[in-house]
Design a protein that fits this description.
The complex is a heterodimer. By secondary structure, chain A is mainly α. Chain A contains 12 helices and 2 strands. The two termini of chain A are about 20 Å apart. Classes of the chains: A mainly alpha, B mainly alpha. Chains A and B meet through helix 2, helix 4, helix 5, helix 6 and helix 7 of A and helix 1, helix 3, helix 4, helix 5 and helix 6 of B.
């Protein structure tokens, strides 16, 4: 953490400024590389600003005409009449994200507890490729899977089940007969964000020193008691951060969700409703957006909304995870 | 367990119960992978013909007539290869700089933080960003625009993956090289890149796999065409979009081919993933242990 102040300091401010005239070509090459590399490291930081700025500029025509509350709170979406209410899309995104999280988080945390606390090294090496492959499968393939397996599953199994047993609960009311909808989108999302949540949570568990566990086990606690009372309280911030990270991934997922969620701009009240999340809105309409006034500004504004929400989620969770990883154990 | 019956308290039941839940969760996650692969293979294989991978779409292809999706396969390879090459040019120096020059400094942490944040930005936002720039510069959807946006998508993935492996470089090697009078640049170029080559290659292939499967970013920027692109300024087809568009078709034959296209994409991505594993194992032989 402490910055080096020795003469070998790698701080470009003190060292890179004045290469001595007698410096050998090798040293000069080193100085040049240092400066070039330094400039390149500016890129990631600047890029975040540029992306936000470019979207803001292109969305400005609509942001300057309508108050933000009308755009975000409006429930009517009629681009041809110049009415752009984002509320159905924002609510739809939130529904799909929450359903995805509710399905993904409990098993993912259990899997990472299992991998971190119980599993043999052999099981871990077996689990890693499974998670890697789940993470490697492209979104559009998840979409195909959703279309071929999950939508029929919702239609044939989940909806009749809910109708029979859960119909009295409003959010499980079966409202339309296709299987496309929030539940299908949530299931697909849950599988897509699982590898991320498992691997981040797993890393967080590994940061807890073994001494704490040993102390608890030595007092006669069972393994689960140790995890429940000793380990979990320590890693809770990290787990929350992992979940938020998963949420932000789910929030921006486009193609896979788009293919199974139905894409009807309504405000959903049940998990069997269709929804129309923001990313799907952008992806579905890029073709005609140049032909209707303000449409392109509205869609790029939607991208800006996504970006802002995800930046907040991401920065917060990343900072928490940093803190967890660097914690000093007294 | 050789415990007496009365010792089997509630907490031991709880232990067994939680353990059972963990096993079940593990089976669910692994089972999801199996289910996905099985679905894609069983539905894609029947319409996977040699024509699919060797022909471009002929007239009437989108009504179920002859042709294939060679345009999309080649287009995707161009896009991902171009994006990956561009991303390497930025990622490798940044990752080397983080390790060799910055070490554990504050600035390095900021750069890592910003890369993590970039990683989290969804590809649809990068696509919209690329589209915003294209409007501003009067550019049309093209292979070049697709490559540029994919490079942005891949940059944080590749850099962070490289950084994670380069960070684990044994300090002794670096110190030995520095002690012999190497400059840091020489250490980065001749010692770190060679010793960490397996990890670097894995990072590159990871990013390539992510790039080739990404649909939302190329949707805006690369366009779609039935021809194999002959120049950077031409639009190009891509596999994810080939899957996506064909699935939206009213013709069952075309949808079936969409499943086959999904299978082709999955095979490519899995091959890249396994290839990375194999290659890094091979390259590991040439590193100092």
């Amino acid at each position: 953490m402490s910055e080096s102040t020795s003469i070998f300091s790698s701080n470009p401010k003190t060292e890179g400024r004045s290469p001595r005239p007698s410096a050998a070509p090798r040293t000069r090459r080193d100085q040049a590389a240092r400066r070039l590399f330094f400039i390149m490291t500016l890129l990631p930081i600047i890029l975040i600003g540029i992306v936000a700025f470019a979207l803001l500029v292109r969305a400005w025509p609509i942001l300057s005409v309508y108050p933000l509350s009308d755009l975000l709170g409006g429930t009517v979406w009629k681009p041809n009449d110049g009415i752009f209410g984002f509320q159905p899309f924002i609510i739809g995104t939130i529904w799909v994200t929450i359903v995805g999280l509710l399905l993904a988080v409990p098993p993912c945390i259990l899997v990472s507890i299992y991998l971190a606390e119980y599993a043999h090294a052999r099981t871990r090496t077996l689990a890693k490729p499974v998670l890697d492959l789940l993470a490697a499968i492209p979104p559009v393939v998840y979409g195909v899977w959703g279309l071929l397996a999950i939508v029929p599953f919702v239609d044939d199994v989940a909806a009749p089940f809910a109708e029979r047993w859960l119909g009295f609960i409003p959010i499980f009311e079966v409202t339309q007969p296709t299987g496309f909808g929030i539940l299908a989108g949530g299931i697909v999302l849950a599988v897509m964000i699982a590898p991320l949540i498992v691997s981040v949570t797993f890393e967080v568990f590994l940061t807890v020193p073994h001494d704490l566990r040993h102390a608890s086990l030595a007092m006669g606690a069972t393994k689960w008691q140790t995890i429940r009372n000793i380990v979990l309280p320590q890693v809770l911030p990290g787990i929350i951060a992992a979940v938020v990270l998963g949420a932000s991934r789910a929030f921006g997922e486009t193609i896979a969700v788009l293919m199974v969620v139905g894409n009807v701009a309504n405000i959903p009240t049940s998990v069997f409703d269709t929804a129309y999340p923001l990313p799907a809105l952008i992806a579905n309409n890029y073709g005609e957006m140049m032909s209707i006034p303000l449409y392109d500004a509205a869609l790029l504004g939607a991208a800006l909304v996504l970006l802002v929400v995800i930046l907040i989620f991401n920065i917060l969770s990343t900072l928490v995870l940093r803190r967890v990883a660097r914690r000093k154990w007294a | 367990m050789g415990m007496k019956k009365n010792r089997l308290e509630r907490r031991h039941l709880m232990e067994a119960f939680m353990k059972a839940l963990m096993y079940i969760s593990f089976v669910i996650v692994a089972g999801a992978l199996g289910l996905i692969l099985w679905t894609i293979i069983s539905r894609g294989l029947p319409s996977l013909t040699w024509d699919m991978v060797s022909q471009v779409p002929k007239g009437g292809y989108y009504m179920g007539k002859e042709g294939g999706i060679l345009n999309a396969i080649i287009g995707s390879l161009y896009l991902a290869a171009g994006g990956t090459l561009l991303a390497i040019l930025l990622s490798l120096p940044i990752a080397l700089y983080l390790k060799t020059y910055l070490g554990q400094s504050k600035w390095g942490e900021y750069v890592r933080l910003s890369l993590d944040v970039l990683w989290g930005i969804p590809s649809i936002v990068y696509g919209a960003f690329g589209f915003a720039l294209m409007i501003a510069f009067g550019m049309r959807a093209s292979l070049l625009a697709g490559i540029l946006v994919l490079a942005l998508v891949e940059l944080p993935i590749m850099t962070r993956a490289m950084d994670e492996v380069i960070r684990r470089m044994p300090a002794d090697l670096e110190h030995a090289a520095l002690a012999l009078g190497s400059t840091k640049f020489e250490v980065a170029l001749n010692v770190v890149t060679r010793q960490m080559l397996p990890g670097i290659v894995t990072a590159i292939l990871l990013a390539f796999g992510r790039g080739i499967g990404d649909a939302a970013s190329v949707l805006f920027t690369a366009g779609y065409t039935d021809r194999i692109p002959t120049s950077l300024m031409r639009p190009t087809a891509s596999l994810p979009l080939a899957v996506f568009f064909q699935l939206g078709s009213p013709y069952p034959e075309v949808r079936e081919r969409g499943y086959a296209a999904a299978l082709i994409l999955t095979i490519i991505v899995l091959a890249v993933s396994f290839g990375a594993r194999w290659l890094s194992g091979r390259l590991n032989k040439y590193t100092i242990k």
